Amino acid sequence: MSESFVPDFKYDVFVSYAHVDDRPVMGAETGWVSALQRNIFALLDRRLGRRENYAPFIDHRLRGNHEIDDLLKAVDASATLVVILSPGWCESTYCHDELKHFLNRKVGNRPRDIFIVEMLKVTSDNRPKDLPNTRAYRFWYEDGNGHTHTYGDLKYRDPELEYAKQLDELAQELADHLKILRAEAPAKVPAPPLPLVAEPPPSIVAGPRTPVVIAEVTDDLVAQRADVSRYLRDQNFEVLPEGTYRYLPPKDVEAALGRDLERAAGFVQLLGETPGHTDSQMPSGMPGLQYQVANRRGARIVQWRKPDIDLDAIALSEYRALVSGETAKEMALRDFCKFAVDFLRPPVVVTPSHPEAIFINADQPDLEVARKFKENLEDEFTVVIPSAEGDPEELRTMMDDYLTNCESVVMLYAATKPTWIDRQLWRFNKVARNRERPPRLLAVLEIPPDKPKPSVGLPGLTALSAQGIEAGLALLRETLLGQHLTA
């Protein structure tokens, strides 16, 4: 039986759906929701290593009054909620109860823990008021008659490519979010490390992600916006907004966009032939409103214009001016993605805050040994050890700074308990994502040998052991010289 990926939860994913949406149509072996669940979990298997690494809740039973309590208990025990949004979901009392229960529980009730799969179009008027404006994944398209159809259902047209794109993005974002929740959870008992996965493509840049806002688009550019978002995420950008501005009134759009722009490196906008819906509050449509907010706030703006637009055919003068502006680039979408990355990526700044520094991490019982090591090594290296006194919050910040920036990290394993070593290794695992490069040496120095081995294994972790303190100092000096002077 699988154990949950996120600590303190029984399940990692709960899928909320109306059973009317899972009835198989003619020629289908399974219902649409069941097929979607199977595909999502197959992709999560790959991204999290194997099925045993996480625990989804799957409800294949017909819902009845006698089952709602069991379903709500499962919602309460789930780290994330995936909503299959459709007219059927909006009409389902049980689905609304699941959402309300998720949002009203004491822990894990944040809107960003909710993922919305749009199975069919739901208008703003019919959309439930308590459904957060969180990120949505569109699995429907509109034909020339204004009718909507679901990807992967009846084949009015070949839907596999767009279905696959949305499915892949949903699975990737869900996997990334589960990793964030896991990292945020208190480390009561160190979780086992994930199995090694394939190295990321060379295009992915290591280090903290750079936030960037991608503007909401008109319906004809939804697929292109998803492609740009996917490309930027692959290039180590954090795409904002976390949810959507689509269902917000104009004044709330300005406030939400303003908050996102405050921490973003720039504003990316895709422009088509029409401004979409316009009214007295949005005379230039949602594209114009978003551009005005970004421009007033002095954001770095990069825009793409759909090729071959007939500018003279655009009746609204304000929108025509926006589409024909100097910042609107008319080019192939792939070329625009590369241009946007070069435009938005901040310059690489090398900060020699701890040049060639060695962090000897030690628990309270081993601090005297750490001080002795520091005194004997500081003629050859910059050595730092934990501070014995001070404000706990400041000490934690300093600890994370050392783990993130020092060239080598050594955990001293002498008089301390094995659980301290486990906690420190897991702490390093959490902050390692912020390092510019892996440490030259990541080691546990055991004095004397034959102690219980750490429960946490990390890539590149070196095990050192010595019979006594003097032998340990000599071994550490020899190892450091080998790592630092020959690198």
Task: Give an overview in words.
This protein has 487 residues and is of the alpha/beta class. It has three domains: 1-198, Toll/interleukin-1 receptor homology (TIR) domain (Rossmann fold); 204-349, Rossmann fold (3-Layer(aba) Sandwich), CATH 3.40.50.10140; 357-484, Response regulator (Rossmann fold), CATH 3.40.50. The protein contains 14 helices and 17 strands. A five-stranded parallel β-sheet has the order 2-1-3-4-5, with helices on both faces. Strand 15, helix 13 (418-431) and strand 16 (441-446) form a beta-alpha-beta unit. The chain starts with 10 loop residues before the first strand and ends with a helix. Mean pLDDT is 82; it is low at 62-66, 187-206 and 349-355.
